[in-house]
Amino acid sequence: MAAIQWIQLIIALSFLVVIHELGHFTFARMFKVRVEKFYMFFNPRFSLFRMKKVDGKWRFAFFAPNVEPAAVEQIDPVTKEAKKDAKGNILYRPMSDEEIAALPEGDWRRDPDNTEWGIGWIPFGGYCSIAGMVDETKAATDLPSEPQPWEYRSKKAWQRMLIILGGILVNFIAALIMFGAMLHHWGDDSLPLSKIERGLYYSPILEQEGFRQQDRIISIDGEEPAFLTDVVEAIIVEGKREVTVERLAASGERETIELTLSEDLGTRYLALMNDHDRIERAHARRDKTYQKRPYVLIGYFVPFVVDSVIENHAAFFGGMQRGDSVVDINGDPTPCTVMVQNALAAHPCDSISVGFFRHGEYQQARLFIGDHGKMGVSMLPITAFYEPEHTDYTLLESIPAGIKYGWNLLASYVHQFRLVFTKAGAESLGGFGAIGNMFPKLWNWYSFWHMTAFLSLILAFMNFLPIPALDGGYVLLLLLEMITGKQLPDKWLEKINNVGFWILIALLIYANGNDIFKAFF
């Protein structure tokens, strides 16, 4: 992964984690719950920067050890010695308000109502330490024996629910705002399927389902898809099976064909994607300049027309020129762009014959294709054949448009999530490396904000899952409390969180392990 991709990933995730924690912070302060610390990044042992208002003055520290917790040893009233747990560790309790007030002036542990703000040195994530809440920042033994009025655990269940949901709500709303702002600033370019007169390209897996090259899709389960993305969404993500296509018959007349797709099309496609990715990774390891080819399931059926020829590459030495329209490779017809690209990829380090039309005259060139499987040309973009529709949005129009776009994207992701529980889906899981590779290798503001908004939706959805240690796990326990009328003891909360923590660690190890494996194999 390129350095610029890592930078974009860290900036995006840091921004999203901060606003997520601000959601928890806002609702906690709304209900007069103390927030002890608010940190961007994690800060074991020391912090890059921290600040807090103490005794009416803002105090700052750079590259400083962390402040000792406002805690004292628990003393056994009989032996007058420090209490210890089963492992012999000394037990501590939070200081009382009187003990805190007795601390020297300027001590950072004073003024517990004020939050300590800081930046840690491990550049992923962050946290918001809420008083009286058993989470990743404190255990049940860190809490006072009796709930205090300024603690999370002393608040009503519905208030605690809002504090927990605050992060999810902020991430979801932030995504919608970002999408709306993008539509207002850049507008939207779209290419309706109704404009695609040449029909569509279909990969071999779809040809097995009955599609033929240049079929035009009329409807899927009775609904007309507006765009190409709607087709993929319907047949792969949502698993819709009944497709009506319009096909040009041998007689020249157009006929309507009804297709019924296989139930396992989505999982077969994922497995095919994994195989394709494995092959592309192997090419990239052999040739560092190799640009990975995406697997095209379905695309626009447009001819491969040369836009420019790169000097000292295969097409340059073969005498090809701008405007040449490639129609066959080694005699096999390649009437569209994707077919040309697939044919070239099938002949790495090989001498091939390329047939093309130049000014209406058929010609051939002999080219030697290197390991990268490319001729060394750029081709005319899709906009050379079809003009996309551009829509501008006023500020008021961008609000509902952004909400609709974000909601549809979230719905699509939720539908895709079911595929994770298949073998092919599990193999395709990735960690930080896979996410980082979704960012462009050159800085592009549109791509950055679109990816950041998408990640914000994912963060909201993933945190809503009822897994212990995630916000959704807390929500589930709060719902049980509302139903039963009984609050779960803090020690049980700690145990449940520990289980959830190790589940999350296992998932992180697996996902990032997949990234490491793919980097070498």
Q: Features of this protein?
A:
521 residues; alpha+beta; 6-stranded antiparallel sheet; 5-stranded mixed sheet; 14 helices
Model description:
Helix 1 (3-30) crosses helix 12 and helix 9 crosses helix 12 (445-464). Strands 14, 15, 16, 17, 18 and 19 form a 6-stranded antiparallel β-sheet that branches. The protein has helices at 3-30, 97-101, 157-186, 204-207, 228-237, 265-286, 314-317, 337-345, 395-417, 423-428, 432-436, 445-464, 471-484, 490-520, and strands at 35-42, 46-54, 57-65, 71-73, 92-94, 116-119, 122-130, 188-190, 200-202, 216-220, 242-248, 254-260, 298-300, 304-309, 325-329, 332-333, 350-358, 361-369, 377-379, 389-391. A hairpin with a 5-residue loop joins strand 11 and strand 12 (254-260). The protein contains 14 helices and 20 strands. The radius of gyration is 30 Å and the shape is elongated. By secondary structure, the chain is α+β, with helices and mostly antiparallel strands. The two termini are 15 Å apart. Among the domains are: 32-150, no CATH class; 155-187 and 393-521, no CATH class.
Give a quick precis of the structure.
The protein contains 14 helices and 20 strands.
Q: Helix fraction?
A: 40-55%
Number of E-type strands:
20
Radius of gyration: 30 Å
- Give the biggest sheet: 6 strands, antiparallel
Low-confidence stretches: none
Shape: elongated
pLDDT average, as an integer?
89
Question: Structural class of the secondary structure composition?
Answer: alpha+beta
Number of helices: 14
What distance lies between the first and last C-alpha atoms, to the nearest angstrom? 15 Å
* Residue fraction in strands: 15-25%
